[in-house]
Amino acid sequence: MPHDHDDIFEADNATRADRGPVDHPTMLSSCARAATAEEALYRVQYPNSATRTTRIFALDQAAAEAMYAITDDLWDNAHFLTVLGNGKITADTNSYNVPISHPDGTPANLDAELAGADVVVLLATNGSSEAAAEVIARECFDRKIMCAGLALKRGPSSESMDRVVNSMRRFTRVLVVAQDDDYIPAMLTALRA
Is the separation of the CB atoms in 187 and 66 below 8 Å? Predict the structure, then answer.
């Protein structure tokens, strides 16, 4: 490659003590090469964000009310579900015996809802839902579905928040404590729900 002066060889010469000019230019780094117009031809021209099949479970009534506030928003493939009768659920409850329903009150089946799901989000405001969280999380683990938890703070008491966090900590891969309900749509958007 013809050149008028040795400026392009400065970086290479600086690393060679007592040596004269070299006869080849310094190569572009991989980052600089990726920024060239030639390499841009090979870029994928659409966003890398495939939609996910998401299931959101409200584990108690207050969590369900917070969830119902966003169910009418546009979501790609998210199902919002409420766990009913937490007092009747134990850690040994089979998945087909977990009473859940859609926001309109129609019953749903946990096994059917988890079939094909990519992400499960558990919402809770109190610690009364530990058994339900365990049953759902166990099914997620068996099916290799990512399970995230969102503990919604209610009131000034840190003890009640500790109960919520402790009830979900063992069962979720991601656990977030939210100070207000606005975090629910933000988290679902981040998860591409």
Answer: no
**Cα 161 from Cα 2, distance rounded (Å):** 71
Tell me phi and psi for residue 89, to 5 degrees.
-95, 130
Contact 76, 52 (CB under 8 A): yes
- Is residue 86 within 8 A of residue 112, CB to CB? The reply is no
Q: Where are the chain's structural domains?
A: 6-40, 54-190
Q: Sign of the C-alpha dihedral, residues 166, 143, 59, 88?
A: negative
pLDDT, tens digit only, all 193 positions of the chain: 454 544 444 555 555 566 555 555 555 666 666 677 777 777 777 665 667 899 999 998 989 999 999 988 888 889 999 998 766 888 888 888 899 999 999 999 999 999 989 999 999 888 777 888 889 999 999 999 999 999 888 777 677 778 778 878 888 888 888 888 888 898 888 887 7
CATH class of the structural domain 54-190? alpha beta
CA 154 – CA 73 distance, rounded (Å):
23
Model-wide pTM > 0.90: no
